[in-house]
Design goal:
Radius of gyration: 16 Å
Number of strands: 9
Helix content: 10-25%
Shape: globular
Pfam families: Lipocalin_2
Number of helices: 3
CATH architecture: Beta Barrel
Protein name: Apolipoprotein D and lipocalin family protein
Keywords: Lipoprotein, Palmitate, Signal
Signal peptide: 1-23
InterPro entries: Calycin (IPR012674), Lipocalin_ApoD (IPR022271), Lipocalin_bac (IPR002446), Lipocalin_Blc-like_dom (IPR047202), Lipocln_cytosolic_FA-bd_dom (IPR000566)
Strand order of the largest sheet: 1-2-3-4-5-6-7-8
Amino acid sequence: MNSHPLFSLVAGLLSTLLMVSCAGSKSYPPLATVPEVNVQRYAGHWYEQFRLPNSFQKDGASAEAQYTLLPDQSLRVVNTETRADGRQKTATGRATAVSGSSNARLRVKFEGLASLAPAAEEGNYWILQLAPDYSAALVGTPDRNYLWLLSRQANLPDSTRQKYADEARRLGFNTTRLLYRPR
């Protein structure tokens, strides 16, 4: 696949900036994902329990995701954010498994302006922990800048949320900044 030279230059600069910005931070071993994900079981409705702050979600909002299995084994992704005033914002995209990851690392691309952002070859959605019954999933990015706890039920017990927050901290995520789903 041919890419535009300017895109290659920008992607290279962003990669360099990321490496430089991480150079002074505490180093952690590379993130491990779960060994395997059954995408048919992973498909369905998820509620965000907590996340690290990011530029594309409002701090006081709650989010839900609907993953629908497509015939090619990719997932249609529909994320819906409900803001404190009741307004909703929806983003639609597609998640495809990274080759050799047994579906534990996904490359998610959204439609619209978000489609211009490159999705890393190693994926931008890593499933780090997954409950055996697929009732909860800890998802993050390998640079540890993005993190979500997703569950099948709207509100998890505090002890369960804490267990996943503790695991995220152990993995090197800055859990002091976590934003929890409003109850």
